[in-house]
Each structure stands twice: as C-alpha cells, then as structure tokens.
Amino acid sequence: MVLQNVRLAIVCDWLTNFGGAEKVILALHRLFPAAPIFTSIYNPELMKGFEDADVRTSHLQHFPLAKTKHQLYLAMMPGVFERMDLSDYDIVISSSHSCAKGIITKPATMHVCYCHTPMRYAWEDSHSYINQYRTNGLVKKYAKFLMHGIRIWDRLSADRPDHFIANSHHVQQRIFKYYRKPSTVIHPFVETNQYRAGQKREKFFLACGRLTPYKRFDLLVDTFNDLGLPLKIVGTGIALNSLKKNAKTNIEFLGHVSDETLHGLYEKAQGFIFPQTEDFGITPLEAMAAGCPVIAYGKGGATETIIDGKTGIFFPEQTIESLSQTIQKFNKTEFKTEDIRKQAEKFDVDVFNKKILEFIRHKWEQHLNDLIN
After folding, report:
1. What is the residue extent of each domain of the chain?
2. If one looks up domain 8-189+348-372 in CATH, what number appears?
3. Is residue 138 predicted with pLDDT exceeding 90?
4. Checking CA distances to 257, which of 96, 154, 180, 368 falls within 20 to 30 Å?
5. How big is the CA angle at 202 (ends 244 and 328), to the nearest 5 degrees?
6. For residue 146, what pLDDT band results from cuts at 50, 70 and 90?
7. Cα–Cα nearest to 158, from 140, 179, 134, 137
8. pLDDT tens-digit map of 76-129
9. Do the two domains 8-189+348-372 and 192-345 of this chain adopt the same fold?
10. What span, in angstroms and rounded, lies between the C-alpha atoms of 240 and 154?
11. Can you tell me the distance from the alpha carbon of 209 to that of 225, in angstroms, rounded to the nearest whole number?
12. Superfamily, domain 192-345
C-alpha cells in the first residue's frame, strides 16, 4: 500500500458540538484510527464516537467557558494552530471552516485541507454574523475591528495547504473567490444504513437544525402561521424563544431529540423543509435516506443533492409567498420513495471513504515523486 508506514495526523478547528463538520472528522478518524487529532478545544461529553481517539488539545482547553463558548477565543485561534507541532508527520489532513488550515508544516510534509467553507464570518457574511447576535454596540464595533485582522490572516494561511478538497461545488467557487486556489470536490456523506425508507407518511412537515438567524426558521414560522399546516421543528439555539413567541399552535418545537427519534420523524414526515443557504447541507440527505422528499431554497449545496421534481422541490426566493406557493406545488406532486432513497445512496459514507483514500494516495504518490525529483 502507498500509505503503509506513513505518519499521519488530523487537525480540526474544535470538537465542542456535533454537526456536519464533526461527522467528517469522525469518518477521517475511522479511516485513520492511529492518527492523532489536534484541535483547539475538545468537549468529550458531546462528542460521541471519539472515545478511542488520541485527541490533543491546546491551552484553550482549560479556559473559562471554552467547551461551550469557543467563539469567545476566536482572536486567539490563529496563534493556537500556528504553535501546534506537526513536525513528526508525513501527511496532515486539516478539516477546516475556521483556522485549522493555518497549521505550519515542514516542506516534506503533505498538507491536505478538507475545506467546509472559507471562514464565513470573515468574508461575505461578516456583517450579518455580527449584527445577528444580541450584544452591545461596543462589542460589535470591536468585532468588526477584530475581523479585519482575522480576514488578513485567513487569506495568508490559505497558502499553507498543498491541496484543497471542497465539500461542494458551491464551496469550490468560494475557495477560488477568496483564496484563489483550485480544489477537488468530495461531498460529505450520510450513513444510509442507519435509515429506513418510511412508506407511510403522516400529515406534518419537518425542519431540523440549529435555531440561529441565518438558518431562516423565522421564514418557516411566518409561512406556516399563514398556511395553518402542521410543522415540527427539531433543534435549539439563540432564536428559539423569539420563534416560539411568534409561532401559532400548528407549529411544534421539539428541542433536542435523540438520533432514533429524529430518524423516526424523517420516516413519517410528509416533507422536510430546508429554508437556508448552506455550503452543503447534511439534513436534506438524511431526510432523503429515509425516503422523505425535501422542499429547499434553491441556492447553495442543496442544489447538488436534491433532484428538482424527483426527490424534492426548490423554492426560488426566501419569501412567504415563494415558499407557500412551493408547498402547494409540493402537495400536488407525487414522489417515489425508491427514487429518493437511491439519490441519497450516491452520497453514502462508503462513497466518501473511497474518494478520500483515492485522493490522498494519488497526491502522496505525486508528492513523493516531487521530493525525489
């Protein structure tokens, strides 16, 4: 094997809550179980699956509120990752949506960055990210000043990986826009064997995710208030109280639920609604793995996984009128469970694992040849 006896390490921004990026890191850990994982902060209570991993944290691990409020220490993150000693490794894989790609490696080391997105709060979404959080004006002014320095460092650190992997074509475009770097697209995954394709649908719609402003759950509440149709929302976040306050009785907030409960909701829901723009978007794939059709905003990563009219329907504008019209169209459309499930299987974890291994083996062969020549 080309990778036999190769010393490999994994680096990620933080391991404090479980989301799409963390699922990728867990998959990398399972592919390379002997590789240590370097990260800024680790909260083992919330990170199931990493119990047997060699997780190596920074000094931020012991700072107040670090395990629950890692955002407080963003200004320190560049220095944290630059100080990580990776001199013992031949290959380093960074999983980055923030600062992990900024590690410094030896010339002989190959650094592959799996980029979930260029740092959103430093680039096109910098103003909205700052404005959406409820805090005083002085803190917001400081945040804008801080982002200027973070933005400069982020661009400079983008020169450090030898190769970029983008998690979608949408992110591939953003990597080139902000970093001027080419990349190869390898989509994230869904573990389809964990889902059953439900055959009997009930009369309710489902949405799931962190309840933060950019996820546009407010659009769902306003739309379903008008339509009067049943909607179940899974998740917690800073927008929960305001959403509950505005919602009518046909909208039910379920909070945090177990994986088993969520899978059951996917199997029973009439449709899954995805109102935001995401770099990729795992939850629509999870719904499709359970045979559930999706109503999604027609921008971002969702356009790469959903087949319009076959596994779901896109709505063109983030407005009540646009979403309402699409829901009415959805209710008149017949979807085939087997078609929806088959589309999800194209993004199975085995497909991801095969593509990652092929990419790293190929690039490592090239890297060795370059070193010799």
Report:
1. 8-189+348-372, 192-345
2. 3.40.50
3. no
4. 96
5. 75
6. confident
7. 179
8. 999 999 999 999 999 999 999 999 999 999 999 999 999 999 987 766 655 555
9. yes
10. 32
11. 19
12. Glycogen Phosphorylase B; (3.40.50.2000)
Cβ count near 249 (within 10 Å): 8
CA distance 226 to 248: 9
The residues that bridge with 260 in the sheet, in sequence order, are none
Return phi, psi of residue 163, to 5°. -145, 140
Structure-token match 């793995």, residue found:
289
pLDDT tens per residue, range 253-275: 999 899 899 999 999 999 999 99
The CB density around residue 201, as the number of other CB atoms within 10 Å, is 16
* CB-based contact 278:302 (threshold 8 Å): yes
Nearest-CA neighbor of 360 among 165, 128, 85? 165
Sheet architecture: strand order including 312-315: 251-255, 231-234, 205-208, 271-274, 294-297, 312-315
The tokens for 333 are: 């459309």
- Burial (0-12, 13-18, 19+ Cβ within 10 Å), 231: buried
Question: By CB neighbour count within 10 A (0-12 exposed, 13-18 middle, 19+ buried), where does 199 fall?
Answer: exposed
List strand residue ranges (DSSP E) for 241-325, in order.
Answer: 251-255, 271-274, 294-297, 312-315
